[in-house]
Structure formats: C-alpha cells, structure tokens
C-alpha cells in the first residue's frame, strides 16, 4: 500500500488520508480506472483530490458500489480502531494521574491491574 501511495499519489495535492483512500480504491478497482474517475470528477466541477463526497460519487455511478463500499468499510474500521486506541490512552492517563495523586510522597504506586 505504501508503494501505491508513493507511486500514484505521492506528488498529488491531497491530504494523507485521501492518499490512503485513493490507494485503497486503486487497489480495488485499478489505478488507471481511478485516474479516469478523477479526471471526470474534475470535469463535473468536483474536487478530484478528495475521495468522500467527490470522486466517491462518480465511482458509484461508473463502476458500482463495490469500490465505494470497500473504501468506506476500511475507513469505518480505521475510525473504530482510532476511537478504541484513544479511549485506552485516555484511561491509562487517568489511571496514572489518579495513582500519582493518591500516592503519598516517598511511596511508590502499585500498578493498576487491567
């Protein structure tokens, strides 16, 4: 995937997220097809450098829902993963702060069990 991002989208004026999304779409539908969709998206007045709400619509129209669903599912699972990781970090920080505040000076805190 890194190769696809660098090779096809490395110099494109896209966010890192869109470079990844376009790479997933290219993996699923082919890079040449996605390039054609980007060109057509631009001709229709949409932004060819943004997947969601732009190239995504033309992909659904021209090649069907498979690629759109594929990219959307990957993004959905990524968001779920990020939320879990962020929540775990928040809990760890709260536990560490709680242990630090509850420990008298000179004593060591006992690590919290998961």
TrEMBL record:
<feature type="region of interest" description="Disordered">
    <location>
        <begin position="94"/>
        <end position="114"/>
    </location>
</feature>
<dbReference type="InterPro" id="IPR023346">
    <property type="entry name" value="Lysozyme-like_dom_sf"/>
</dbReference>
<protein>
    <submittedName>
        <fullName>Membrane-bound lytic transglycosylase F</fullName>
    </submittedName>
</protein>
